[in-house]
């Protein structure tokens, strides 16, 4: 980089603000490495040291010139001597100080016989000198740039404005007077006066703009961005920059309205930590100028600063007196303000100067928090001696070792896993490709460092002008971390490219997640070791309790809440990093065209493509780079540490933002990044009301898992051998359909003789094949991640921490390898802790196996056991010879799980005592159309209850078959009336055709969506006349809805009531909220889209955000989403109740929404708990409680009571649907409720 470039603009600012990161390239030069090395030390000033280095350069030049004179004496050509001498003279710095001017070379004798040898020698030495001289010039320029940046560093600090520009003339005059005055301690006196004169409430101007000056719960857009900018400045040590931006915004009335008290407090706290009283007083001036009253945090910052500076007692007393007059309690400084131990000590030091006898209150012992939900009374009642919480099968020492492993993984932030792709032979071609890649990556690292530095310079210049630049965000991670992250992104980019918006979002999120890592490792290690005494197999605790209760009893401080970044910041930061990668990643053109000149070409290209009728920008790797990767065949995958299972038990959930991973903060309720509404609802909720959800999530995460090795080996065999899509093993990209050839080749579209209709057909065929290829690539990558992680964890025990969505439904945090996936994903997992089968466990294994086949759905449990016995020969053959035998397992609905179960049954029946056989296999129990079960229970609908197995019966009822039968009745009637489509459908109406629509209608599927589902099923029937698909799907979806209306009349009335309530609530301008029976607050995040545009760079990015609470609610989504979301919140409540009660009974329990898993020996106990908790849940007046909550929340404000929408809403909410006569107690005796 040239000296001019280093010296312009904000170069000095960039170097002044950059955190310690990767050393510059200067230290990597060979000959002068000792001069620049870090180990050298000197007492001289930096400028003096640089002069000495420059003098050393001059001495080196003199040595080179002496060598020139030696060559001249040996007969070198005079012209060459003159050229070399001239270059030396030009390159020499005029300010080298004391160096002699170059001497004129004496003329020597020129013998004709010596000219040839001298010319050759001259050429070689001239080239050597040219090379050395160029190197010296570059180093000289870098030296000059470095010296200039050191000078500009101080200049930049002076350019950052610290003195506030006050809008109030009186305050501005007062500030000027105090700055020019000469009292003994002007800033302390001024602060005391400012506190005394500070307003006790918002000024009239601020109060008139509640939307702009509102509480932080309403921070949106620019305010969120400001808050995150200040936070990042403090995290990265750029407090003067934060102060400068605060002053800039404060000085303009329109921008000042965006500033909130917490922003002023954040900057004040930064100055307090540095003991900078003058700057802190400046912020107080701005606070008063803005019409804001200081709060406890403001006083805590001022007093802490006084403590650090050892101020006089008089000033402190005046400060404390004013705080009392403001109605703020001194004790609150130590109880209500989050402080570190060091900050607390400085604050106490200041207070004791004014009040020597003051003793800070001890950390308040929170009053016993009791969950008020009647459903959880038994869970949190005094401990019952019969309660037997389960323990892990691992010893304390083993668990402590696993903790250390997980700690190392999280501190590294990423983990590298060997891929399961086929390992190639190490041919010369492969080795050459790998060597080429290694060389390219070395170049890219250097280029990325340079591009990052230049980007920081540019963003630093923007920040100097008071704009909210990306500079502090770019400083959150070291340059080494950013470079590694970008190279990982380049490595993982698919051959077809990726959307720039998607890449930007992912890169921005990765920076945000990594900056959150906490580093209190030693303290965490001590507390976690104590926590493990509750879980280890060889330790005891004084009193059995839930993991959260034990963790809280250890006195663990709650983790600080992290302010989320706005989505615009996340995307803009990621876009900036993606552009850095595009500029830095270049490769020789010879890799693409061997005969081309060795110029550099980009590795990534920015192109536009159409996806779903929208034009989007895509970053696509050069085909030559893709081919190079394929040839090199490097078999490693890199994952974020939070994207893989944990190697030790997760931290128990203790709050909405504290739990799961050791160092990486995780939200209890997942939401779109930038959305705060869910988190704010949870934080306002009394902590005890969340105990049910916290403990259920902890219990699900504490289940230990292991990999089913035999199934994994078989899957890997198929995966390496072109896959098997029929069994859910994706084929490699080589098996994807190729572009058409011959008459349908894409290039024929350019021929004039091809008709427009043929061209359109060619384009459609090409688009179809490309879509199939993309889908195959996506499925293959998903399977690659899952299988690679499975092999990596094969001989380990691991855990899956859980969190939940906004409805309360739970999910594992690890996205690639968990039990929520496909049949293949579930078959790879089994419990790490085994249980003996006992007297009935083998029977449950057999029943489970038959359930997995999809056969005998309408048969009794005994009939299913008998069927398994009849098939025992096929079962054993499948277990022994899965790939070479009769392959009976491949015909099952869930083939891989069926195979895993065959193997477990085979081991059990061959054991000497099957009852003593220790089984690790999870047995599932599924709800019978669980959404309709909840609706039938809510409406006490006897007919609907019988259809979904809420009533006891000898045989299981199948609601899908019943709906199909009812539709067939309607079809027969219409066919007799001469309806053509009804006649065409004869013989084609089956359970399979209507199942998906019946299953999803309870979750809000519309007639349009249902028609698409039925259309897809009809197209799968080869005998059905395809010309009638559209008409037949329209007819069938109408008849399915009519059948459900007749069979579930209560269900439809409740759905309509929920839909209408949500429609009216959204018309009042609010999003729908409710509280689940377990006390979890829910809000629907559906608002009208707000467009966000990020301009500049490769392209302008535009994306829609539906979570902006400043936008009006999206009425359509609110009303269509309320019924299914409300039912989902009920099924999650039922699952959590079942989980907590199973835990009390010592069972291992996990769930996939309405599918519950446990050991074969414990299925009967789990079923009993499941039925009991369903009855307890629906014994509550759920609909009436919902009605009361919605009335209080949306109809109780007198300011809106006269609104026509509120009036209609009140009438609707008071009209709670009437219920039927179904007796819920009968559910306790229903064998097939979950089966």
UniProtKB/TrEMBL annotation:
In this chain, the stretch annotated as Disordered covers 92-119, 728-747
One Pfam annotation reads: RNA_pol
Q: In the UniProt record, does the keyword Transmembrane occur?
A: no
Keywords noted in UniProt: DNA-directed RNA polymerase, Mitochondrion, Nucleotidyltransferase, Transcription, Transferase, Transit peptide
* Gene3D superfamilies found in the cross-reference section: 1.10.287.280, 5' to 3' exonuclease, C-terminal subdomain, DNA-directed RNA polymerase, N-terminal domain, Tetratricopeptide repeat domain
GO MF term list: DNA-directed RNA polymerase activity; mitochondrial promoter sequence-specific DNA binding
Please list the reactions this protein catalyses: RNA(n) + a ribonucleoside 5'-triphosphate = RNA(n+1) + diphosphate
**Highest taxon of source:** Eukaryota
Q: Does the keyword Transferase apply?
A: yes
The top EC class, named as a word, is transferase
Q: How does it assemble?
A: Homodimer. Component of the mitochondrial transcription initiation complex, composed at least of TFB2M, TFAM and POLRMT. In this complex TFAM recruits POLRMT to the promoter whereas TFB2M induces structural changes in POLRMT to enable promoter opening and trapping of the DNA non-template strand. Upon metabolic stress, forms a complex composed of FOXO3, SIRT3 and mitochondrial RNA polymerase POLRMT; the complex is recruited to mtDNA in a SIRT3-dependent manner. Also forms a complex composed of FOXO3, SIRT3, TFAM and POLRMT.
| Family membership noted in the UniProt record | Belongs to the phage and mitochondrial RNA polymerase family.
Mind telling me what this protein is named?
DNA-directed RNA polymerase
